[in-house]
Design goal:
It is built from 6 helices and 2 strands, in the order H-H-H-H-E-E-H-H. With 163 residues, it is mainly alpha-helical. The two termini are 34 Å apart.
Length: 163
């Protein structure tokens, strides 16, 4: 294949369309969450992922797992955790079985804010998808997103869209 190969050109165009769809959705959700709840998409995603933790084996996520789930580096995730901890939305504590490990939980205030923000996130997502569906280039991707019914494994956090 050469750089001018039609298959590569189509692949690049598909990637550009996917990137465009993601960017539009994320920007729409970001505006809604910032305006109504003073949350960024990343902050919302982090609260959402951490709220899905549970007691028991494999229930609490290590920072690398959290970083993977919110699609950030570990250092960026740590900074994000610190910001939300400073706002009283998260708290860190030592792992009871490994004193080197640190876990992060969502506080009651964080759970309350997440519950208030979830409908905003969901409606902004729906609005962004509806708007994108009116674009002939993006409509096929919207249909694919809407058709996904991917089951979530028990110990796999689900990254929120825009994360």
């Amino acid at each position: 294949m050469t750089a001018t190969d039609p298959a590569l050109t189509a692949l690049a165009q598909g990637w550009c369309a996917l990137s465009l769809l993601h960017g539009r959705i994320e920007a729409h959700i970001e505006r809604a969450l910032q305006t109504r709840h003073d949350l960024s998409v990343r902050e919302y995603s982090l609260l959402d992922v951490l709220s899905r933790q549970h007691d028991g084996e494999g229930g609490h996520l290590q920072m690398k797992q959290v970083a993977d789930a919110v699609v950030l580096s570990q250092s960026a995730t740590t900074r994000l955790v610190t910001r939300l901890e400073d706002r009283g939305l998260l708290e860190r504590y030592l792992c009871p079985t490994d004193r080197r490990g640190i876990y992060t939980n969502v506080t009651e205030a964080g759970l309350k804010l997440l519950a208030e923000a979830r409908p905003t996130n969901d409606s902004a997502l729906r609005e962004a998808l509806d708007e994108a569906a009116r674009n002939a280039e993006l409509a096929p991707l919207v249909r694919v997103v809407e058709s996904l019914n991917a089951p979530v494994a028990a110990n796999t956090p689900t990254p929120a869209l825009g994360a």
